[in-house]
Amino acid sequence: MDSSKYVRYTPEQVEALERVYTECPKPSSLRRQQLIRECPILSNIEPKQIKVWFQNRRCREKQRKEASRLQTVNRKLTAMNKLLMEENDRLQKQVSQLVYENGYTRQQLQSASATTTDASCESVVLSGQHQQQQNPTPPHPQRDANNPAGLLAIAEETLAEFLSKATGTAVDWVQMIGMKPGPDSIGIVAVSRNCAGVAARACGLVSLEPTKVAEILKDRPSWFRDCRCLDVLSVMPTANGGTIELIYMQTYAPTTLASARDFWTMRYTTSLEDGSLVICERSLTSSTGGPSGPPTSSFVRAEVLPSGYLIRPCEGGGSIIHIVDHLDLDVWSVPEVLRPLYESSKILAQKMTIAALRHIRQIAQETSGEIQYGRGRQPAVLRTFSQRLCRGFNDAINGFVDDGWSILASDGMEDVTIAVNSTPSKFLGSQYGTSSMFPSFGGGVLCAKASMLLQNVPPAMLVRFLREHRSEWADYGVDAYSAAALRASPYAVPCARPGGIPSSQVILPLAHTVEHEEFLEVIRLEGHAFLPEDVAFVQDLYLLQLCSGVDENATGSCAQLVFAPIDESFTDDAPLLPSGFRVIPLDPKTDSSATTRTLDLASTLEGPTAGRSAGELTDTNNYNLRSVLTIAFQFTFENHFQDNVAAMARQYVRSVVSSVQRVAMAIAPSRLGSQLGPKPLPGSPEALTLARWISRSYRIHTGSELLQPDSQAGGDLVLKQLWHHSDAIMCCSLKTNVPPVFTFANQAGLDMLETTLVALQDILLDKILDEAGRKTVCSEFSKIMQQGFTYLPSGICVSSMGRPVSYEQAIAWRVLNDDDSNHCLAFMFMNWSFV
């Protein structure tokens, strides 16, 4: 047969070739010849023609896949275009509303200026009563808790309010930086502005059907890592085919310095006329009506304002999802320095809103087979490992009493908290009750934890360094002790050996999420014995590690490194006892008005904003970044070794804290240092004048020099010397009938107060002094005003994080301006240290 002629294959021949193609799309020459010999129906076909058939078959397969991919992209683009058009319509409505409100406000101002300003008190009261009559805000009527119709009325109100937030203009939404729409993006993400509580909104595309999406979103513990438990206490069907559920949910506190939250809510699931699914939720309170929730003891009751999910079917398959999360986290019950954690809509967006979208996209890609994992692990198993690591770490940080945790007495220093759990099966699960991790003759779990404030250290950068340079902070002996509990003869190492054994780590990737914001990996620690007595202690150790939040461009993202010892077998149900680090950014409040600033060095060190690019301003804000670092390490112990393990754990966490502080100082981009580079220290004339006033007033009142005398020193050098002074120097306002507020502190002062230049201006002098210090300042105040200065005895003050700080001596003096008038009050705390 002429191989150049076209060959028409019979159906039987095509079927035989297709079977081979399924097994091997690109057979070799020998395999093709073997195929002709073994298959008689192909005997009349030349090997070269069979080779051409396989080439054409591969080409058709490639074209089919490309056509399918383009169809998928086209569907995504069509759906995204529809989504963007709807978003554009919503923004136009918002603009129209703002224009109307602006015109109305202008009209009211003009009317007010035209009327007489000498109104009597009676007219003001009557005017207020008239305004209340014009804009009545009656509370929700109290519904009968046993009446389903009352609950349905609450549900319908919740539905209407949720839809107005998801697709309307009920909330002023501002798009988050970096969240650009596109066929492969996570979606459009926005946060609230000037809104009660914190709120976040997202809309995106997924390739799952609406019912599957609803099922995933309802299973909140599977994707919301801060969810401790979610109990559906009651389910009631509604006449329109929907369901009403009464839900009690508990969430973890993100750090040891705050209390956990719980929620009592009603969740309403229904369908709209266009076929969309809606799941909306709100808290049941005395104002909304409805049944009363379970009592709370160790939790702070927070509130879910109308929130939920709008899931719309997409043409050609898939869904368009609108998510709204709106919470009131009772910020006033939190220490002031931690309030940004509960006031930041960006943190809520990362923890809940974006997390939900990412989880759905992850499930969708796993279902479609787009993600392939190695090492023989199923995606669901790997997700379970990540969830268990996070949950175990959260349990350790919170230490709930109903899980069996109790606090041990401190050793006189409050920097490290030691908690003990003698019934670990309560929180680890009954399947670990017979594990070799816990001896039958008595033992438990001990957790050493601490929290601290970091300044000018990007959380992502710190966690990435801790992950890549474990030897900078970890001790191989402690890792060996933790791993000993997994061996057949546990507790072979009764306590960690001091001094440490050199080790190195090898990172073995297991899995990562779609956008690489989270990594699951196995760490092999290789010990190196240089002394004969170390040989018995050195062997390879294994950790299961989860790293997340290492993208420095993710706004409001929490960075976390959590790990747990495992053995070589590493089964799917392996017991995990997680330890690790969590760094959460404290999103500072925006200074709404630059004109309210006083003459202080804080404004100078922030630098002028005029003429700067957006990128420069962003970098400047990074230098004022504060974050909360929480460390928790868990160890198993035998009862008769509890005190030894507690002492070891306390000492080890203190050493880790010291190492992390050293690392943080090394990697922090020093704001002042960056300005001191090759250029002189920038500063306004007013700020340089203030630095000169501080130094001059000290010399006038005390007769000695505050800074190194230099006849040729310019204002820039004075400011530089003041900033780098070894003692903590700070200034506070000196105004009658107004509590003194700090307006400036040098670097040592900021370190002592554990704050930043921006947050400094929110700290009152009375808040940092203890009772004895306040009495001393009050008694010496007249002396300061008459003599110009006074020495204060040694004492204790408190940082903004609540940590006690001791100082050997302090001096207070009046800062005079060029007219010798009082400008502010300065303090210098000498030889200070944290207690």
From TrEMBL:
<feature type="DNA-binding region" description="Homeobox">
    <location>
        <begin position="3"/>
        <end position="65"/>
    </location>
</feature>
<dbReference type="Pfam" id="PF00046">
    <property type="entry name" value="Homeodomain"/>
</dbReference>
<feature type="domain" description="Homeobox">
    <location>
        <begin position="1"/>
        <end position="64"/>
    </location>
</feature>
<keyword id="KW-0238">DNA-binding</keyword>
<keyword id="KW-0539">Nucleus</keyword>
<dbReference type="InterPro" id="IPR001356">
    <property type="entry name" value="HD"/>
</dbReference>
<feature type="domain" description="START">
    <location>
        <begin position="144"/>
        <end position="372"/>
    </location>
</feature>
<comment type="similarity">
    <text>Belongs to the HD-ZIP homeobox family. Class III subfamily.</text>
</comment>
<dbReference type="GO" id="GO:0003677">
    <property type="term" value="F:DNA binding"/>
</dbReference>
<dbReference type="InterPro" id="IPR023393">
    <property type="entry name" value="START-like_dom_sf"/>
</dbReference>
<dbReference type="GO" id="GO:0010014">
    <property type="term" value="P:meristem initiation"/>
</dbReference>
<feature type="coiled-coil region">
    <location>
        <begin position="74"/>
        <end position="101"/>
    </location>
</feature>
<dbReference type="InterPro" id="IPR044830">
    <property type="entry name" value="HD-Zip_III"/>
</dbReference>
<dbReference type="Pfam" id="PF01852">
    <property type="entry name" value="START"/>
</dbReference>
<dbReference type="GO" id="GO:0030154">
    <property type="term" value="P:cell differentiation"/>
</dbReference>
<dbReference type="InterPro" id="IPR002913">
    <property type="entry name" value="START_lipid-bd_dom"/>
</dbReference>
<feature type="region of interest" description="Disordered">
    <location>
        <begin position="120"/>
        <end position="147"/>
    </location>
</feature>
<dbReference type="InterPro" id="IPR013978">
    <property type="entry name" value="MEKHLA"/>
</dbReference>
<keyword id="KW-0805">Transcription regulation</keyword>
<dbReference type="GO" id="GO:0005634">
    <property type="term" value="C:nucleus"/>
</dbReference>
<dbReference type="Pfam" id="PF08670">
    <property type="entry name" value="MEKHLA"/>
</dbReference>
<dbReference type="GO" id="GO:0003700">
    <property type="term" value="F:DNA-binding transcription factor activity"/>
</dbReference>
<protein>
    <submittedName>
        <fullName>Homeobox domain</fullName>
    </submittedName>
</protein>
<dbReference type="InterPro" id="IPR009057">
    <property type="entry name" value="Homeodomain-like_sf"/>
</dbReference>
<dbReference type="GO" id="GO:0008289">
    <property type="term" value="F:lipid binding"/>
</dbReference>
<keyword id="KW-0221">Differentiation</keyword>
<keyword id="KW-0371">Homeobox</keyword>
<keyword id="KW-0804">Transcription</keyword>
<keyword id="KW-0175">Coiled coil</keyword>
